[in-house]
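Review form for a predicted model. The reviewer records the input and the model, then writes brief findings.
Reviewer: anonymous (R2)
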Amino acid sequence: MSKTEASLVADEVSIQPKQADEILPVRTHAQGGLDESIHKGVFSPVDIGVLYEEVEEDVPWVLEGYLAEGVWTLLAGPPKLGKTTFAYDAIVAVATGKSFLGREVAQKKVLLLGLEEHRRDIVARLRRSGGDEILGLVKVIFAPLPYDPAVFHDMHSYIMQENIGLVVVDTLHAWWRLPDENDAGQVNKYGHPLLQLIRSTKAAWLVLAHTRKQGGEHGQEIRGSSALAGLLDIAISMKRTGGVNQQRSLEAISRYADSPIKLIVQKGEDGYEVLGTPDEVSTKAKAEKFGAALTENDQSTEELIKATGLSKQDIARASATLKDGVLRTGKGCKGSPYCYRRNSIHPTSEPNPEPLDKSKEQLEPVAG
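Model under review:
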């Protein structure tokens, strides 16, 4: 053996775990592993011109904007906020191929790592959410599940053999049990092997995590070191809104333009439904408040502001949102301010282009 070869072998040995708590489930080409490039042990750069000639690939979405093959998506939120309920609804949608959050879903088999809740609770959730529809389509493994190289390689083999398309981990903190999750070095040491596993399986991964008690923005609310956010492809934060109790805000930081930045969702009898962006939800709520304050008699903008607490801009936007449900008088200028009343006549799709009696002040259905 040459000196160079001996040096390479020594390097291979040195990167292997020396302690039981060192998680490095990455094997060199001499041992076998998950990454084909490691198997080959070849450093072979490709000219960019060759890459340009390849057919451009679309992102292989399982749930557009949120879950994709070989992509690590993390859903974070405070305990008891509804993360697990949301994840189970996603499991059923993917297993059955039904739409979720108003988006098309690619039907796939699902593997659930139920590592935090009791076995009976996990089974009860799945029975309520999916019933018999998910039989044979959802596989479950319960705690305890070691976070070590042997499990990673078993998982890789199982996912490939069973053609699993979505892996859900509930939760990350219950699985890897870092000695110090605020230590960036430990997060990277434990996180990179998991990222390699995710890439190699080509399954979509939805990993649940908790957020810090003090909260945060732009991924900084995820509990532990900010190094975790750097490993993720898509980070989704679930938060409470100022609306009704069942409303939740989903805020995404993503490598992909297809991921919605913010959505407001609400849990209903048939699962989560999308209410819209925060601006859309706010606009609708203000329009409903404005509409409820309207009467059969004209009210000025100032009177409606006092009655609703909305701003002048809110009143204008709300009246435009309600369209034919509102009749507006005046020209919106000094001496002829806008006044609003409820349109008690069933509104038509096309407002009358001119009043029947031109001698009277024009009543205008508000245009959109």
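Findings: Residues 184-201 form the longest helix (18 residues).
Further findings: Residues 4 and 63 are 48 Å apart (CA to CA).
Recommendation: see findings above.
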